[in-house]
Design a protein that fits this description.
- The complex is a heterodimer of chains A (112) and B (115).
- Chain A is an all-beta fold and 112 residues long.
- Helix content of chain A is 0%, strand content 48%.
- In chain A, the strands form 2 sheets. In chain A, strands 2, 4, 5, 6, 9, 10 and 11 form a 7-stranded mixed beta sheet that branches. A 4-stranded antiparallel beta sheet of chain A has the order 1-3-8-7, with no helix packed on it.
- With 115 residues, chain B is an all-beta fold.
- Chain B is 0% helix and 58% strand.
- Chain B has no helices and 11 strands.
- In chain B, strands 2, 4, 5, 9, 10 and 11 form a 6-stranded mixed beta sheet that branches.
- The radius of gyration of chain B is 14 Å and the shape is globular.
- The chains are: A mainly beta (112), B mainly beta (115).
Chain lengths: 112, 115
C-alpha cells in the first residue's frame, strides 16, 4: 500500500549510542518532516526537507541530524542518544506546500 | 499561553451521541488541520480547511477565521471513533523560511466512546 513507512517501530538505546531512523514514502512527495511526540505536548518539528538534497531545522533540532539523499527517503540520526530523546517519532510527507499530510506509524524510542 | 488550545482535553461519550471538539488559536493562519491518532499510535489526516465547512461521512469540520476557532463534530458516535483528535494550524508567513512550512499542534483531545 502507498504511504509512509518508518523503521524501526521500537528501539531501546543506551545513553551515548547512535542510531538512524528511516522514513520512506512512495507517493513522490516533495516535502518530508520529522516530528517528536511527548506526553502532554503537541507534536514538535525536529527537521524538515522541501526536496531531494535539502534539509532545514525545525523547532527542536538539537541532538539530531537528517539527510535526504533520495527523494523517497528521509533519515533521522541521533549521534549520541540522551534520555531526553526518549519519545515517539513520526515522519510525515506531503506533495506540495499546501497539500495534506500523510503520517508514518511512528517509532517508539527509549533511551536508558 | 499555547498558540493552539483544544477543549476538552478528555471526553467520554455514549455510543450514538453527537460530539464536538473545539480548537482555538491565537495566530494568523492560512490553514487548519484536524488529525486523528488511533490508540495504536498511527496518525491520519482528517481535514484541511481554510474557510467554511467540510464533511466526510459522520465527521464535520468548521472554521471561523474571524473568531479564530474551529470545531470538529462527530455525528452518531461509535466506539471505533475512540482516538485522540489533534488540531494543527499552518501560520501565515510573509517569508519563505521555516515558519511557512511548519504546523503548530494542539495537545489533542482524547475521545472515548462507550457502547
Amino acid at each position: 500500500n502507498a504511504g509512509v513507512t518508518q523503521t524501526p517501530k521500537f528501539r531501546v538505546l543506551k545513553t551515548g549510542q547512535s542510531m538512524t531512523l528511516l522514513c520512506a514514502q512512495d507517493m513522490n512527495h516533495e516535502y518530508m518532516y520529522w516530528y517528536r511526540q511527548d506526553p502532554g505536548m503537541g507534536l514538535r518539528l525536529i527537521h524538515y526537507s522541501v526536496g531531494e538534497g535539502t534539509t532545514a531545522k525545525g523547532e527542536v533540532p538539537d541532538g539530531y541530524n537528517v539527510s535526504r539523499l533520495k527523494k523517497q527517503n528521509f533519515l533521522l540520526g541521533l549521534e549520541s542518544a540522551a534520555p531526553s530523546q526518549t519519545s515517539v517519532y513520526f515522519c510525515a510527507s506531503r506533495r506540495s506546500r499546501d497539500g495534506g499530510y500523510t503520517f508514518g506509524s511512528g517509532t517508539r524510542l527509549t533511551v536508558v | 499561553k499555547n498558540e493552539v488550545e483544544q477543549s476538552p482535553q478528555n471526553l467520554t461519550a455514549q455510543e450514538g451521541e453527537f460530539i464536538t471538539i473545539n480548537c482555538s488559536y491565537s495566530v494568523g493562519i492560512s490553514a487548519l488541520h484536524w488529525l486523528q491518532q488511533h490508540p495504536g499510535g498511527g496518525i491520519v489526516s482528517l481535514f484541511m480547511l481554510s474557510s467554511g465547512k467540510k464533511k466526510h461521512g459522520r465527521l464535520i469540520a468548521t472554521i471561523n477565521i474571524q473568531e479564530k476557532h474551529s470545531s470538529l463534530h462527530i455525528t452518531a458516535s461509535h466506539p471505533r471513533d475512540s482516538a485522540v483528535y489533534i488540531c494543527a494550524v499552518k501560520r501565515v508567513s510573509v517569508h519563505s523560511g521555516a515558519g511557512s512550512y511548519q504546523l503548530t499542534f494542539g495537545k489533542g483531545t482524547k475521545l472515548s466512546v462507550i457502547p
